[in-house]
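Task: sequence in, structure out. Protein: Por secretion system C-terminal sorting domain-containing protein.
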Amino acid sequence: MGNSTLIIKQKLSQGILSFFLLLICFGFNSRINAQTGPNLGSVSNFVLFTSAGAVGNTGTSVITGNIGSNIGAISGFEAPSIVNGTVENVNAITSQAAIDLKSAYDHLYSSTATNTTHAAVFGGGESLSPGVYSIGAAASVAGTLTLNGQGNPNSIFIFKIGGALTTAASANVVLTNGASASNVFWMADGAIAMAASTTISGTFIGNGAVSMGAGGKLDGRMCSIAGAVSVYATTVVNIPASLVYQSLEAYSSNDWKPLIKLANFDPNDDQQSVADTDFVGNATHAIMETQRSTTKFSDGVTDEVYYFRVRMGQSNPSTSFYFGIDVTGDLIADLFIEANTKSKPNFISLHKRDQSKTGLSPSQTAWLNGVQNGELLLTNRDAEIRSYSAGTDIDGGNSGTDYWIEFGITEESLKSYVLSNFGTSITGDSVIALYGFTSTSQTANGDVMGINDKIAGELDKSWEELGVIINGTLNNIASGEILRPTVNSLTTDDTTPVISGTWGGNMLGDDHLSVTVNGITYTDELYINNTNWSLTLLYPEFAVGTYEIVATTTRISTNKTSTDITSAELTVLNVTEPTTVTSANDGGLESNGDLATLIAKRNFNRIKTNSFANKKANQKRFISSSLFAKTSGSSVDFSAVIPNTGLLGTETTFVSSPTDLIGITNAEQVYSVDYYQGSDRVAAVLATATTGAVYSHSKAICDRLNSSSLQNIVTIKLNGYEVILVELKRANGLTEYAVNFSIQQLSTENKLHSYWNIEQYPTGNYQNFQVWGASTAQVCHIAKTIISNFEQLKKLSADAVDNRIPTVFVKNGFYENGKINLTIINKSRAFNLSFEGNKKITELATTESVAQNVVLSGAYEQNVVLDLGGIFDIGLSIVGGTSKQLDALYLADGPWGLDYSATETTISSFVINNIPNTSIIDGQYAVERNATVNGSVYGTMNLFRNILPGDLVFDASSYTTVGFEIQNSLAVEVVLVTENTTDWNNRLRFQLPANATAAQMNIAFEKFTNPLGQKYNNEKIKGLVFSVQGDYQTYKPFEVAVSQLTFKNSNSLGAQSFENQVAQNLYNYPNPCTNSTTLVLPEETQSVNVKVMDLLGRTMLSKEYDSIPANHEIAVALDNLKHGVYFFVVTSDEKKQFQTKFIIK
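Result:
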């Protein structure tokens, strides 16, 4: 069989009930159902009735209800008997009642049995649960029979007897636990005779005479389709109270409201190719319509009734509907309403969800059947269903005229079922979302409204991903009203606040939300999550004060709007002082596969030479130049366009230019300025000049590599030009805002460009600007000033561009143990993304292409892990399914690299392999890849490994030791480079002797010391350097192979810790040197005498050193000796003498 669904969702945490209404139409196979009672029609008004026979009474009886016969006399009911009702005999009323009685008899006769094995005698103290009990021949009731409704007031009991039905004297039928006389039916294909003193309940319909003996009591009715009906003295016949209710009727008004109109709807897209299950409709003729009625029933109860009708492509479709209701807030239907139009008569019942399915998608939506599984039949008091011609033929062909299938259901029936089964209260003012599909089985695998479900995999997508959800309250949907949006009140000291609220949803694309703040209307910038919305207001920043937020929903089809009714929703308190930001001297690089080692070497050189211009003390004051001053050659005077102060006019400016970008980037000229408020850096500008292409490194990519998080991306207007503004949160928790733009140098004008991806920029010569700071006001003020200065120089233009930024992007990411870990921001609720990348498995390998499709949940933020195997680096891009722009970034591991002077070292071979370290155990951190280098060394050769990429530092607080395997033909100095290593002469180091064969080393961090005697002090680690020192006299062949580099703790050491060993020969470094150098002693000693002698043997310097550090190194001041070649002669207190040659430059 097939199905259809209405889902109702409750947000318990907010006290707002939210429904998902999903309409399912399906081909319905006959089944035992609904333990469905017949529709008695007008015969329900009678307590004694026969279609063809007399109705008689003997003795004194009390009758409550109408008496009637369509063919035959009525007698014996005069006083002293009492009749509380009317007597109808052979008239139009009895004629209709006879027709309705036959229909009810046929319904009972054709009902599918749930029990065919019961004995022919009922009673004897037994208790029965709801169901259809079928006996093929005569049957009887004796003793006590209990009918247990199992707590369901609408439980149905049907007894189908294939012959006569009798009761023994004093037989007693007891109703308990919710069972109702109005829902008990006895049908006999023969006579029915109830003996004296029988007490029984239900509606009796016989195909023969029907009688009750003296003293009997019946709570129900006695009817015959072909025989007399008779009662005897003292019989009391009471009609069940519930049967005096008025039946719910079809909605007579023609005021139907179109609910689903889809211009792109394919009327022949039912994947099952079953015409009965195919919805049809288009932009003119709605697939679904609705309306609402307030109905007063004859019992005085007034209830809301919700009517829906769906257009089907087949005349007289043989189908059914299901409605799923979500009451737990997880977008999964917990219960279903079945509206069956195939079974005769039609019926509506409630079902519980099939928990074996997830319920998230059409292919995973299912429900349970049968009273034993909680199915509940609704009477015609609470529901109606019918079908009729729609007067259209949208799909053409041989299917005939389109048909409406209409159904209505009372609000009270929904409320009662949800409350009794889930303990949750719902009303017509609860928010719902409505979507529809057809099916040919008990799962939703058929025709989904609004999509072509013949496409493979479509029905496995979530309902939300399919985009076929309509939101609103039951009352508003049924009346065609727009659910009024709301704005949440917010008091904050954040000048870039996030405001939020609710709305009714997009009504399948018909409704659109806009939010207006300070005269600016936002639409595309809104983040929509079902019925919730939010908006981050990055620019312009808010001053202290109170602001009006206006949320408006516009319905395109009717051109109607609905606006929130609150005011003064946003209050901004005293603004928090901005925090400090990073220096422009540290910007401008995100690295890529070709530059990673060069950038690492640049950073290494900065440490060796102590050339850091990222601190105010090391920077020169910035002096701006005249805007129209002439420049020499082709150089650009950036000091003419960069402002000399910031937003407040009190900021001081200092030059921080990272000139070492030249040569490793495509920048031909670099200039940067840091802005200070007191000692706090509040903004920075990095400017570059490039030829042929835009500058190839962006701040958003650079900072994400260096552990910052990209919080948001928006476009803003500065001086009328659209530029990109980003919000970044650095690893230290501080926030930076940044804009980037480039000025293309053309012959007659300049053109401003601001794009997300480098590939979007046209070829040409550019002046490129990255501006960042602690507030958007500061950043935008500086950027606007730069743009204004360019406007004065030459005409400035810009191209209008759609989809400038992605709506699905990487917040942050990192590589670890063969896996790429990405945090995705999904502002447009995409449910899939395409991933492409070019990876290298080592620093020296060729690139490999990789691609994957990733399923998203639709959540605003989601973590994604991509298993790509071991890599060195990867340049990657992602495109979300709903994003019109891709996002690109670069991720990497820390690189291996070499640092040496080509005049002092020759390299014969440098090899990096990706052989994994299989000896890693818990509590250890493996540094991937192994390096081998060989050649000839005269001076110094450094093999280095940055632990993490870019400027990141490694937190080694969980470790105590660094371990590795090394084979080295010459002595090696191992340097531990930390975040505090700014003076290379005071680096933390450890000496290793030569190892002709591979040796396993485990060096405790505390063994690393510097010439000042200082030890490692739990600083974060940048990397390790394996330094080979020549003697500056002759070239010596060397080889160093380092593998299985691992950080360990004291509990995970796999080998005995390596204790410090001294070099085999005396040497010094640096060599050549200038004013000082460091001597490395070849053995342990308590004190030494150090002499410096020239080539003539003259002693130029002599000094005693009484305390030798544990690392056996002595810092020697050279007392301004002249340039030349000298010898160190060192005599230990053991009277051993060593010497080595060195050069003073």
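Confidence is low (pLDDT under 50) at residues 1-21, 23-35, 240-246, 1054-1063.
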